[in-house]
C-alpha cells in the first residue's frame, strides 16, 4: 500500500523579531490600503499591536473577534469587507483570531492572502482547519487553501500574552504533538518531530525571556508539521465539545483532558506511534508503562504551572458526561471512567 504526504500551501514561515517590517515588505507600502487587520479586543490593547497598527496605518482594523470564534462576529466582518478589493488579511492574535480569519476568507474569497502573527501557541496558523462556534456547539470547515500563506513567529508578539493563556496553549501544543502520532502514515516523521516539539515545550514553557518564547513557537510549529494527514485523537475531540458547550478556553481543555486520555490509551495496547513517542521520551521499553508515565509527567508539569483544572470547575456535572461521550462517539465503560476522572 502506498503512503501519501500532503503539503499545505504555506509560502513562508519567518522566525524571529521585526515581523511588522516583514509584513510591510511582503505586502508593499503601496498596497497596504488593500489589506485589513483582524484581532481581538484584548490584543488590540497591547503595545505590540498598537505599533503594528501605527506601521500599517492604511489598513482597516477589526478587533471584535472573541473566544471560540462566534459565527455572528465572523459574518459581520465578512459582510464589511466583501466587495472592497481586500488582497491581504493580517491576523494578529491567538487561535480564535486566526481561525475566524480563515472562515471570513471562506465567505468572501479564499484567494485573499492571510498573514498570521500568532500571540499564543495554539498552532492554528499551521492548520487547514478553521473552527467556529454556533449555538453553543463547535463547528468547522477544512480545506488546504484555508491555511495562512505567510506566518511570522515573532516572540515580541507574545510578550504581553497573559501567562495562563500562554502556558495553557503550550499544553495545547503538546496535545497536538502527542495526538499527531496517532493513525497511519509516516509514523517515524511524526514521532521524531513530536519528540522534539514536546522536549522543547517542556524545557521552555515556564521561561519568560524572548529566546524561551521563540523556542516555544518553534515547538508549536513542529507539533503541527504533519497535521493534514493526522487523525484527531480523543483529547482533541473532547476539547472541541467542552470548549464550545461550557466556554472553556482551548488551552485549558487540553490541561483537563490530555493526562486522562493518555491513561485511557495506556490501558490496552497503545497506538504504535504514541507508544514509540512515549518510549523515546522516557527510555522505557514497555509501551503501556511509557504512555502512562508520559501522562503522569504531563500532569505534574500542568500542576507545576498552576494550570490544573477539572471539568467541574467550569460547571460540568456528572449528567453532562453522557452528552460529551455521545458527541465524541466513544462510550465504552473504560472511556467513561477516564472521562469521569476529569470531573
- Total helices: the number is 13
Provide the residue-averaged pLDDT.
Answer: 95
**Oligomerization state:** single chain
Strand/helix succession: EHEHEHEHEEEEHHHHHHHHH
Could you tell me the number of beta strands?
A: 8
Walkthrough of the structure:
Helix content is 49%, strand content 13%. By secondary structure, it is an alpha/beta fold. The protein folds into 2 domains: 12-158, Rossmann fold; 163-341, Dehydroquinate synthase-like - alpha domain (Dehydroquinate synthase-like, alpha domain). The strands form 2 sheets. The protein has a 6-stranded parallel β-sheet, with helices on both faces. Strands 6-7 form a two-stranded antiparallel sheet. The longest helix has 18 residues, at 187-204.
